[in-house]
Amino acid sequence: MHRERVSDNVYWFQSNVYAQVTAGVVVGPKWAVLIDTLALPEESIAIRDFVERELQTSIRYIINTHYHADHTWGNCFFPDATIIAHTRCSELLYERGIPALNDAKKRNSALHQIEIILPTMTLDDGELLLQIGKKHLKIIPAPGHSEDGIAVLVVEDRVLFAGDAFMPIPYLPDGNIEDMYAFYENVREMSLENIVQGHGEIILRGEVEPSINENLYYLNAIEKAARTALRRKSPMDFLASQDVEKCGKSRIHLGGLAAELHKQNLEFAYNTALKEVDANKKQAR
Ligand SMILES: [Zn+2]
């Protein structure tokens, strides 16, 4: 696990085991807030040990940016923490997380100590402000990657923990492309020092605008590829020819997952475009 100090009392953690997934800690005078947990038990436990031994404090709140396993399955290692998330996150962890974990446990004995812990302090479309010492954490909706996405702005430091709504390569199949466009435009207005992406490296101030533009370019490129595929005799062959570099993304690490995420994005965009065509046909009748 990598660890870095982002600003005063703000820390960042990145897995070197699974897809460069990230988590954060904000430390106050009496307690600390954890933003997401990491994918494997030992990584979440290593964060807990760092907070307790080196920072001499403990985690009182966990904010889950969304329900996906690599961000929430470490909740159980912080039994005294109150978990904050979107209302849908709690529902989705119950509906999908619990069966997914039961299934995963059959295949991987390293997961036996994990238990799904549901968020109990939840928000819907509004915002939530959490004060920690002199800092304020503003929790805002961040859909796009998943319907339950939230992001955390460290107001005074202009650091945004964006969850997977911001990734080195946007990932859509559990989300919605229009929401993602809207979220990026929202982020553009925030005048940020850093974006902590749900996976990958921290985006520094000078890279914020180019990163937003690059991701918007990518989203446009996959939508365009999907529309072109609709007009082809063999759409799947055409989609297979549209590799990640052609869509403006290269040199993305993510533990080697980029090509697979890209393929799934293209299929998702194609199926979305196909549904729109069918809906239009129905209307025309
Ligand atoms: Zn995710």
UniProtKB/TrEMBL annotation:
The coiled-coil regions, if any, are none
Q: Which Pfam families match?
A: Lactamase_B (PF00753)
UniProt xrefs under InterPro entries = Metallo-B-lactamas, NDM-1-like, RibonucZ/Hydroxyglut_hydro
| All copies of domain Metallo-beta-lactamase, residue ranges | 20-199
Would you say which domain of life the source belongs to? Answer: Bacteria
Q: What is this protein called?
A: MBL fold metallo-hydrolase
UniProt organism field: Candidatus Desulfolinea nitratireducens
Q: What is the lineage of its organism?
A: Bacteria, Bacillati, Chloroflexota, Anaerolineae, Anaerolineales
